[in-house]
Amino acid sequence: MQPHESARGPHVLRQINFGAVLRAVRDHSPARVADLMQATGLSRPAVTRAVAELRDAGLVADVDETAQVSMGRPAQWIRFRAEVGHVVGVDVGSHKVIAMVADLAGQVVASRQVTIAEVTTGARLLQSVRDVVAEALAKAGLSGDDVWAIVVGTPGIVEEARGEVLLAPGIPGLAHLPVLDELRTITSSPVLIENDINLAVLGERWCGAAVGRDSLVFVHWGVRIGAGIIIDGKPYRGAHGAAGEIGYADLFSALDAPDPSPMLGGGASSVSEQGPFEQMVGTQAIAELAEAADALAARNGDRPSRSDAVAAVFAAATEGDPAALAVVDRIASRFARGLAALLLVLDPGEVIIGGGLSRAGETLLDAIARHLRPRILTSPRLVLSDLGGDAVALGAVRRGLDHVEARLLAQPQP
User: Fold this and answer.
1) In angstroms, what CA-CA distances link 333 with 40, 183, 207, 276, 355?
2) What is the CA radius of gyration of the chain?
3) CA separation (Å) from 380 to 342, 352, 385?
4) Better pLDDT: 218 or 284
């Protein structure tokens, strides 16, 4: 089969060169033409033409030549105009909304975070999202006209093509709300929506614990559990956007009969409830195991509340408390069983543990690694998240930058 005429010819080559030089000058700004030639492998005429096109598009500018050399013929230096546009990354959670504003080089110039009350409805949360984005832009001294893309990360199953949240466990009333329409009142530029954990894995690959890795899994572990997957450098979402929803895996009802859990009630009866795996290893399960094992013995006359129980049990385990160590070992064993099923299918090079449980640190990580080792055939690198609570918002920024770049490259070059 012959390629379509539009997919070949000099205009396609110019477009490829344009993209290569765009990325090079963005990553190495300011740079000389010779630097761009070395970074791209292109000839001087090809780089010079691409630079001219970038200049016409307003994406690069010449740097004052006299400031670059003290003698001889001045070199031509070019800088990337990162300030010419901005993207906004948004993390919508059940208890918080974060908005980050970044320039076209990915430098975060402003951010805003608000805490959301537990009784907030989906409609009220949507209004909070709009307000937080507007406040972040105002903090940066920008308006909607300065925004080239907004990317929103939300829990649940997202239909990316339609821009719709189909299912939103943990945030009642958010599904099917006009999230994109609400944000389009701020800017006429593209507004995208994506599953939050899919964005978190992009963030870690961009500037976190897995920079440049092409095969990795990010597991968010907290009240809820989900995984973001990258295969061969590309996010994997599945046919229906539900890839990585491991919280709903039922691995224990038959296999764990000798060690039953009072939290296992036959699986989730609706998407608003926790899945079987979440019931077995989520923060609620850890707190209840700790209480049952009396691993939260009162200190100074005080016993930690349920909300502080998880942190307390890991702190006690770090100090060598036998009861707390037993709880950590048990929960790590359960978690490793579920994680092993995912790793045997995907065989990633790296596994990142994020979410609230990542704060437990090496005590938990060591226990997971010990129980995981005999259950898998290979040995992926197992690490904790570097980005913590910022992973989703930063991943949304990265997704926005990728979208902007794709749009620029899709424009026909003269």
Assistant:
1) 48, 43, 30, 15, 18
2) 24
3) 12, 10, 15
4) 218
| 377 domain-assigned | yes
Looking at 80, 95, 120, the residue that finishes a domain is: 80
Buried/exposed 193-211: b ≥16 CB within 10 Å, e otherwise: bbbbbbbbbbbbbbbbbbe
Q: Which of 64-68, 318-322, 398-402 has the lowest mean pLDDT?
A: 64-68
Q: What is the mean pLDDT of the chain?
A: 86
Residue of 336 and 409 predicted with greater confidence: 336
**Same domain membership, residue 130 and residue 42:** no
**Class of residue 101 by CB neighbours under 10 A (exposed 0-12, middle 13-18, buried 19+):** buried
- Asked whether the bond before 30 is cis by omega within 30 degrees of 0, the reply is yes
The neighbouring-strand residues paired with 88 are 101, 150
Residue 153 has pLDDT above 80, yes or no: yes
Cβ–Cβ under 8 Å, residues 285 and 263: yes
Domain range for 54 is 5-80
